[in-house]
Amino acid sequence: MDLSEFLLEKTDTIIVNWVEAVRQDNNIESANDLSRKGIENHIGHVLSALATVLSESQNSEIQPIVDASLHHGSLRAEQGFSAAEIAREYRILRQVIFSILEPQLLQASTSEVMRTVRLINIVLDEAIGRCFQSYTEQRLSELEQLQNHLTLNNQELSRLVRANQDNLSHLAHELKTPLTSIIGYSDLFLRLQRQKTKDNVNNLEHIERVLRSGRKLLHLINDALELSRYEAGQMKLHPASIHVDKLINDVYEMLEPLARNKNLPIEVDCDRAPDEVVTDSLRLQQIVTNLVSNAIRYTETGKIKITCQMWENDKWAIAISDTGVGIHFEDQTQIFESYFRVALSDKSYLPESTGLGLAIVSRLVKLLQGEIKLDSQVGVGSTFTVILPLSVKV
Ligand code: ADP
């Protein structure tokens, strides 16, 4: 009997032995819950194609192996097989085929044995190759689906984050109105009390405390609102041509009384500044006001200085220096983060401190297409330098 016929005759035995061996193999766990048919799948096609290839009288027919193996690959992907498990089931198939053919091969001539082994290997290699091709394609399409899901999830998450920001702004708005009236009424009450009862100090202290916390809450809410507006992309740039010295003078006039209260002179040196720049005047004023008021708040003796000058590459700079407490090197990058504050030496914070001022400043600087630098030494003082384009791009 030639090998081809023998193989056809033994097909059922090979299938039974192979299915059993795959099921018993501890390294192919994915087959544990499959039915016999589920494991068997394309093996009949592979064996019959193998028989035609081995037969010298028939034309070799390899196409069924190609088709069957492609199908086998995508089925194995669906069944959750790993690539290693597939490689293992083919190795077992090779072993089972050779062990069944062994008695026949022992009687054949050397050249016949060589030919048979070579052909079986070619056919099985082709089957493995095709199987992996469709297995990989199937896995790739699963990956693509997963990626699509992830993208959708990501969009959904971003939407939620945005919605939360909206909620926060909403809440802050709601809080603002009653707070404003608390402050208004307390203020009025305080003034009336001062006129009437000079002796009732305790009462006044309570009211003053209400006022202080009310003001602080309002300050915090305003800052949080400003930040959330920026994060939601709602902060729009309104560029216009402005006079630098006028803007600096406005800030000076607003904050000079505060500095004078602490005996701190504010020096202004803007002789080397550009006359006019194109920027958002309100936002720039907010930046300078914030930095100068910080300089006053964190300085006890010495002075504050505001310097404006031209900078390279069509830019200009404004620096606010103080001779205050200074900032430790390790805190210098963090002070621009929301709610980050450095405690004073007695572990307390300044009454109006929110930790949001510099976070707002750094975002506003970005909005104005500039950058902010800090140079500070503990016990010596700090200089915040804001570098801005002479003209913002719209
Ligand atoms: P805060 O409302 O707490 O002042 P900021 O965001 O404006 O919030 O500042 C963050 C922290 O950076 C402050 O708590 C303070 O420790 C530090 N800081 C800011 N400006 C100065 C300065 N000019 N000198 C020293 N420390 C400063």
From TrEMBL:
<protein>
    <recommendedName>
        <fullName>Circadian input-output histidine kinase CikA</fullName>
        <ecNumber>2.7.13.3</ecNumber>
    </recommendedName>
</protein>
<dbReference type="InterPro" id="IPR005467">
    <property type="entry name" value="His_kinase_dom"/>
</dbReference>
<dbReference type="Pfam" id="PF14361">
    <property type="entry name" value="RsbRD_N"/>
</dbReference>
<comment type="similarity">
    <text>In the N-terminal section; belongs to the phytochrome family.</text>
</comment>
<dbReference type="InterPro" id="IPR003594">
    <property type="entry name" value="HATPase_dom"/>
</dbReference>
<dbReference type="Pfam" id="PF00512">
    <property type="entry name" value="HisKA"/>
</dbReference>
<keyword id="KW-0597">Phosphoprotein</keyword>
<keyword id="KW-0418">Kinase</keyword>
<dbReference type="GO" id="GO:0000155">
    <property type="term" value="F:phosphorelay sensor kinase activity"/>
</dbReference>
<dbReference type="InterPro" id="IPR004358">
    <property type="entry name" value="Sig_transdc_His_kin-like_C"/>
</dbReference>
<dbReference type="InterPro" id="IPR036890">
    <property type="entry name" value="HATPase_C_sf"/>
</dbReference>
<dbReference type="GO" id="GO:0005886">
    <property type="term" value="C:plasma membrane"/>
</dbReference>
<dbReference type="InterPro" id="IPR036097">
    <property type="entry name" value="HisK_dim/P_sf"/>
</dbReference>
<dbReference type="Pfam" id="PF02518">
    <property type="entry name" value="HATPase_c"/>
</dbReference>
<dbReference type="InterPro" id="IPR025751">
    <property type="entry name" value="RsbRD_N_dom"/>
</dbReference>
<keyword id="KW-0902">Two-component regulatory system</keyword>
<dbReference type="GO" id="GO:0009927">
    <property type="term" value="F:histidine phosphotransfer kinase activity"/>
</dbReference>
<keyword id="KW-0808">Transferase</keyword>
<feature type="domain" description="Histidine kinase">
    <location>
        <begin position="170"/>
        <end position="392"/>
    </location>
</feature>
<dbReference type="InterPro" id="IPR003661">
    <property type="entry name" value="HisK_dim/P_dom"/>
</dbReference>
